[in-house]
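Two proteins follow. First one:
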Amino acid sequence: MTNTLSNNPPEWVEHQRFDTHQQWVNRASCVLAAHPRYNEGINYSEPSPFKAVCFDSKGRLCRNGGDMARARDEDAFPVYWLWPDQIGAVALGINPSQEQSA
């Protein structure tokens, strides 16, 4: 099965990526908590239910540092991320910003 995101990411997702493991180390805590809904309606002592989903260039889910290290070791960067409200658009092959303006 071909993973659309890893093999041919939509143009509107191209900026949502880490090109290297070091870039992930340096930027992930800021970038992956930047969505306006990230802290919506939660108790700050608990993890956010609105989390980005990361995939390496081989289409594998990257959930933690070990997965990111595997991507580094197996030359599987860039790693792309999607917000929960973007997953359906990627699966359907649509651009959500075009859908909202239509």
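Second one, unrelated to the first:
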Amino acid sequence: MYYRADKRDFSVDDLIVTAGNFQSLNPNGSDAIEAIFERVRPANKPVRATSLFLFVDERSAKKHWSKMTGGCLYIVEADQSGCIHKGDMRLVDQAFGVRHDQALFLK
């Protein structure tokens, strides 16, 4: 069982795929952070824009969901063999938390 925070409406048994537009919905400065993530992305991993992000634990999912406007929190099933990366969302939050000082990242 996994959790998904999403602004789209889903019904039971719907297939959830990435909307592919999260970058365009993020605040100013996000492009610089995403560019860094892309620059250090291992060649065997897909780009973030084409990836579906799920949470393993409800607490982390609710924290992310609480930052959304008009979003829903879903309990989802996923084939674990399709999981190609497990990361710590706190690290992503930290990266985006300092986006106001983009010059630091771009040097």
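SUMMARY FIELD: The mean pLDDT is 83. The helical segments are 22-25, 30-39, 58-66, 89-97, 102-106.
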